[in-house]
Amino acid sequence: MVYDEPRKVRELIRRGELSRPTCGLAPGYAQANLVILPRELAFDFFLFCQRNPKPCPVLEVLEPGKYEPVLTARHADIRTDVPLYRVYKNGALTGEEKDISSYWRNDLVTFLIGCSFTFETALIRAGISLRHLDEGKNVSMFVTSVPTIPAGVFSGPLVVTMRPIRREKVVRAVQVTSRFPAVHGAPVHIGDPAKIGIRNLAKPDYGDPVEVKDDEVPVFWACGVTPQAVALKSRPPLMITHSPGYMFITDLLDEDLSVL
Amino acid sequence: MVYDEPRKVRELIRRGELSRPTCGLAPGYAQANLVILPRELAFDFFLFCQRNPKPCPVLEVLEPGKYEPVLTARHADIRTDVPLYRVYKNGALTGEEKDISSYWRNDLVTFLIGCSFTFETALIRAGISLRHLDEGKNVSMFVTSVPTIPAGVFSGPLVVTMRPIRREKVVRAVQVTSRFPAVHGAPVHIGDPAKIGIRNLAKPDYGDPVEVKDDEVPVFWACGVTPQAVALKSRPPLMITHSPGYMFITDLLDEDLSVL
């Protein structure tokens, strides 16, 4: 079985034949975070993303009720083409689903938000190894003391990912990720975790801890968990997201998301 | 009188003491196109801009009824700080105003969209002269045969600006403007105007004609007139914009808008 073409992978997912995390599927193509909200919250959420592009890099937004992307994946169906969804009601997780067709309403607005898989691939190609991948772990994520810029009903702290980078590779890591602003882009902080309100690198708020060795520097990037955390805080009557690691696979090449 | 600081320039404009085009004011700071629309059209217009970032690079959007920018110009007032506004009703120009406070409503949504002054400054600094500026003219603008990506009620052709660039400087012009995606960015077309549906470079649809000499190539960039033209086509009950050349001066440095 070939898992190379995004369209074919999405078809397998749609038919329920590929229920796994999407890391490694359709290599070279960009994957996206999914946030679906009712129309009455959509404008404010769109504003929040525009004001906070590092944690919330918008790849595409669909008109209310639409479930076929026009920019990132023609002929896809947002209700069926993600392997696992999470459904939240009034801010509480009520279930995980493989298909959200039965939840669909004409007032639901879909946001596709850039995911760090793209820049991690670029880092690896630049000879910068990533410990969480080497060890088969989830990346470490931390809630910081850095506020996002509020918009309408949405506000909350910036969530970041941390990757230990060898001291002599830090500048290169900044350069490589700067080329990908649509997938979180350049780091938001380099070095001392306390400066952004992180007390203990061994105790991430989400994901798994990884060691930071003596010749390494902790480097922090804005994280796509931020918009989900901020949206949940507002307790929307209905919100649907992808389940962590089970992303939406787009037709965009990673390189389509680069600047220069 | 010093016209260097954006805040001070905006104060003079607000008091009616500086009623002139903004080109050359607050040098080094980014200026913005203004589009104000009623709330019921704002989500679709925001979507249109997200899908067409080259002609419609959004710098900031304000919540309905808000007139103080939070990202681009704290303490400014969008109703008074532009030297000249245009008011349209049902798609028809009904007047030019120096102050739109009397039109203000709690459902109006303000969009600030990047303007090419920033990248023109960068081109000049890179030793690329711009004929329309040398000759004190407005840049040539053309309606193309290239469609934008529709969003909701909004659709229409891409409008471009044309600048003649000396053959040996074309690559440099691409490089320099690529650094500024938030102000239209890299060209959309280089060379033969007919390829994008332009018949006669001597007859622009907007602005003034300029000569293209034998050792020059016509280079085309997406133009901020596009979103205004597209919005007007939908005949919104009320739409307010800046008057051409009378822009909103932000507190952002030109360099704040660069990537890499």
Structure, explained:
Two copies of one chain form a homodimer. By secondary structure, chain A is α+β, with helices and mostly antiparallel strands. Chain A has two domains: 6-115 and 234-257, 3-Layer(aba) Sandwich (PSTPO5379-like); 117-226, 2-Layer Sandwich (PSTPO5379-like fold). Helices cover 20% and strands 27% of the residues of chain A. Chain A is built from six helices and eleven strands. In chain A, strands 1, 2, 3, 4, 5, 10 and 11 form a seven-stranded antiparallel sheet that branches. Chain A has a four-stranded antiparallel sheet with strand order 6-7-9-8. Chains A and B meet through α2 and β2 of A and α2 and β2 of B.
Keywords:
seven-stranded antiparallel sheet, homodimer, 260 residues, PSTPO5379-like fold, 2 domains, 11 strands, alpha+beta, PSTPO5379-like, globular
